[in-house]
Specification:
The protein contains five helices and five strands; from the N terminus they run αβαβαβαββα. By secondary structure, the protein is an alpha/beta fold. The protein has a single domain, classed as P-loop containing nucleotide triphosphate hydrolases (Rossmann fold), CATH 3.40.50. The longest helix is centred in the middle third of the chain and has 12 residues. Strands 2-3-4-1-5 form a five-stranded parallel β-sheet, sandwiched between helices. 30% of the residues lie in helices and 16% in strands.
Length: 140
């Protein structure tokens, strides 16, 4: 069984065309990573890749290298990545550079820029009855 189509899939693609990055927020196991993988060209599993921690100490921007849009899954495992993403978006001046996903709420403090104008926030919820095929009524 393949990945099911989700209501937010079209919105994710639309936001990638308008923003430097998209942050997909939502509860654990609601499908954020799977939806992001459908449109990403490369992926970094921030919480699982053993090269992430040492690279963060030497040259964090290297983690952002890769085909775009680049998925940064569980990005909040290295919260300082947020500011690197923001700076790369400013430098490249291109849309659709990154997709950030994570199962926990993002860490927001005074040292972290909001991402306004660069990173679009997209809220994902658990699968609706329509998405699961249990209802003929589509809800948004």
């Amino acid at each position: 069984m393949g990945c099911r189509s989700r209501i937010i899939d079209a919105e994710l693609q639309s936001r990638l065309r308008r923003s430097g990055a998209v942050l997909i927020e939502g509860p654990k196991a609601c499908g954020k990573t799977e939806s992001a993988r459908q449109v990403s060209a490369s992926e970094l599993r921030v919480d699982a890749d053993p090269a992430v921690a040492p690279t963060m100490e030497v040259d964090p921007a290297r983690l952002l290298d890769g085909e775009t849009p680049r998925l940064l899954d569980e990005w909040q495992a290295q919260p300082t990545l947020w500011n690197y993403v923001r700076h790369v978006i400013d430098e490249r001046r291109l849309k659709g550079q990154f997709i950030l996903t994570g199962s926990a709420n993002s860490v927001e403090d005074v040292t972290q820029h909001s991402g306004a104008g660069r990173i679009s926030r997209l809220r994902m919820r658990t699968m609706s009855l329509w998405e699961s095929g249990r209802s003929q009524v589509r809800s948004a």
